Structure prediction request, 197 residues.
Amino acid sequence: MAIFANNWSGRLRYAPSLNVAILLATVVTFGLAVSYASASIRTPMDKQALIYMRPRPANSKIIVYSAFMPFFTILQSGLDLSLYFLISLHPLYSLAISSLYFIGWLVQWSIWMHCEITSIGSSNAGKGETCWQVNLDHRQNSKIPFRSSEGVVNGRVVLGAVVIALYVAYFVMALLAVMRNRRGGGKSMKLGPSEMR
Prediction:
């Protein structure tokens, strides 16, 4: 099948090593996300912050909020690495996946920034509508929920930004490989009669 043809040539053949970096950064991010979710579930609601009257979401929603993109990125990166080494992953597939996951991570990271870094501890006016963390009991003069640590929150946000940057680099390398193949520098991207079966 042409989607798995070997079209990574020259220096671009090292592009899947970016997938290894994405996988490693995401595994650490997933660990931090699970730690944050666990701490958020155990943190009591702040009695004074209940002016927003926003109840704590279900535990499953907190876990999805914290670990959705890291979990699926681990699965996708593992699959991509397996496909690359077993069947030789096509750059066009990598181009599509990297753009999709870039958008997903950008949305996830934006939500983390909005709800965990910029809203808590600053003016919370209107934030109770979108961010349930506003109603958690916080440490004195801190934006971090009582049972969590700043290292977990900040580490997850920083690693999220690293994953976004790695997906941009992966997208660029896949785009260069696709352009090289279209110019004739690699194997043709069209299916031949023997590949159509």
Notes: Residues 150-183 form the longest helix (34 residues). The two ends are 8 Å apart (CA to CA). The helical segments are 16-42, 59-86, 91-118, 150-183. Residues 1-5, 186-197 have pLDDT under 50 and may be disordered.
